């Protein structure tokens, strides 16, 4: 899986890879953090912010995590930010990620299209009682057979 790479020196985080991530991906991108100074101990949590939403992900023993899908959930090109904190609130600044617009769109194939004029007329006719349909259509084959 593609992994975005970050290096931390003290409270400063820098993105060190050049992957161009595309929006709308789920369970695809990981993040790896290289902590280069000793103050980063204990449980570490990454923060992924895009728009007005921030999602947190706890880092594993390899200082990695799956980036939450909500971070990639955008219909436009935008910039998200990544930060990390640990222990008794050791914090870092933000690294920025350009998120490219996806060509993916929700399919409307399962949603029926709006009825056209012809379908609307047929629907109105179906709503009439059978007796009224007989009158309009001139009767059924059985009526004419007699």
Task: Summarize this structure as a short list of keywords or feature phrases.
4-stranded mixed β-sheet; alpha+beta; 146 residues; 2 domains; Immunoglobulin-like
Description of the structure:
The chain is of the alpha+beta class and 146 residues long. It folds into two domains: 3-99, Immunoglobulin-like (Sandwich); 114-146, no CATH class. Helix content is 16%, strand content 34%. The chain has three helices and nine strands; from the N terminus they run βββββββββααα. Strands 4, 5, 7, 8 and 9 form a five-stranded antiparallel beta sheet that branches. Strand 7 (78-86) and strand 8 (90-91) form a beta hairpin. The chain starts with a strand and ends with a helix.
Strand content: 25-35%
End-to-end CA span? 76 Å
Strand segment count: 9
Number of helices: 3
Mean pLDDT: 88
Helix fraction by DSSP (H/I, runs of at least 4): 10-25%
What is the CATH architecture term of the largest domain? Sandwich
So what's the oligomer here?
single chain
**And the CATH topology of the largest domain?**
Immunoglobulin-like
Largest pleated sheet: 5 strands, antiparallel
Q: Provide the succession of SSEs.
A: EEEEEEEEEHHH
Number of domains: 2
Query: Which segments are poorly predicted (pLDDT under 50) over 5 or more consecutive residues?
Result: none
Reading off the top of the CATH hierarchy, the class of the largest domain is best stated as Mainly Beta
What is the 3D shape? rod-shaped
Rg, Å, rounded: 29 Å
Q: What would you call the structural class?
A: alpha+beta
